[in-house]
Design brief:
This protein has a 4-stranded antiparallel beta sheet. It is built from 11 helices and 4 strands; from the N terminus they run ααβααβαβαβααααα. Helix 2 packs antiparallel against helix 11. It is elongated.
Length: 305
């Protein structure tokens, strides 16, 4: 009987405040969708870092004849055979180094022609202008500075470059988008909480006669407050379900179909469905508990029992 009464009161409350309940559902859905999207974006950045950092190299560019004439770092002349042998030997002794590949000027020229054959400057470049280099793959890409410190400024070395810097701007952009999403999520969350509090306040005021009678017949505070809390929790749960649908549709539309980024950007390792599905329970739990807690706090002020 008590359960039936609570459920009937929930239905009455939702019908009386249908417009505000709908606003709560929408605001909760949008805020939780942004929250889930921010979590997925952070995981995407982490996945891309793991994928690309494992493939990028540290490049040690060696001086050639042209550098000896124009670059102060190569003022002692082009790299010698002995210097190249010493650099390779020193790289082999370093614990942070995984593999070393020596790229000749001819190989560098060939790769340049493959990548930039359509540009006007490609026709003016000759093999003797290209630099020899050592392509070093590290066991831990974060240990770039160890190699840079050991070889930067050494005779025969023009520069030491970490290819991670090429990707850093992309990662910074994605992190910035993630922060923006979190900011908007926080704003939407505040709006949702304000709507929940106002909805509970209006509902409690409209049913003050019923709650007064219940108090007179000895009903407990928890029993009187339960319908209001359940109303907020139900609206929040609906918002959480909508947010889950938005996350699933977003993953489907952006990556698999629609924009089909997985086909257009095949070099990017996108997060899978498992990453999305594992976030859904958290979204639902927050959608259920957040409005219920907000309603409970509001009732302590607006429903004196």
């Amino acid at each position: 009987m008590r359960a039936q009464f609570v459920l009937s009161e929930i239905g009455v409350g939702l019908r009386r405040n249908l417009t505000m309940t709908f606003a709560v559902i929408v605001s909760v859905a949008l805020s939780l969708a942004l929250f889930g999207g921010a979590l997925l974006m952070r995981e995407q950045v982490s996945t891309m870092k793991d994928f690309w950092y494992d493939k990028v190299n540290v490049s040690i560019f060696l001086c050639n004849k042209n550098d000896a004439e124009s670059d102060e770092k190569c003022s002692k002349g082009a790299v010698t055979a002995e210097q190249k042998e010493q650099i390779e030997a020193d790289l082999g002794k370093m614990d942070v180094v995984d593999t070393v590949h020596q790229e000749s000027a001819d190989e560098a020229y060939k790769h340049y022609r493959e990548q930039y054959s359509d540009t006007p400057i490609a026709a003016t470049i000759t093999p003797d202008q290209m630099q020899e280099s050592f392509r070093v793959k590290l066991k831990d890409p974060e240990k770039y500075q160890v190699v840079a410190t050991a070889f930067a400024g050494r005779d025969g070395v023009q520069s030491v470059q970490d290819q991670r810097n090429i990707l850093q701007n992309l990662f910074d952009l994605m992190n910035g988008m993630n922060i923006a999403a979190l900011f908007v999520m926080a704003l939407m969350l505040v709006i949702a909480l304000m709507l929940i509090v106002n909805t509970v306040r209006v509902s409690a005021f409209s049913r003050r006669r019923e709650t007064g009678i219940m108090r007179l017949v000895g009903a407990s505070s928890f029993y009187i407050q339960m319908p209001f809390i359940m109303e907020a929790a139900f609206a929040g749960l609906l918002g959480g379900l909508v947010a889950c649908v938005l996350l699933l549709v977003g993953r489907y539309f952006l990556i698999d179909h629609g924009l089909a980024l997985s086909e257009k950007m095949q070099l990017v390792n996108f997060i899978g469905w498992d990453a999305v599905i594992t976030k859904l329970p958290l979204v639902l739990v927050i959608g259920l508990l957040m409005p219920a807690l907000a309603a409970f706090i509001a009732l302590r002020k607006y429903l004196k029992v």
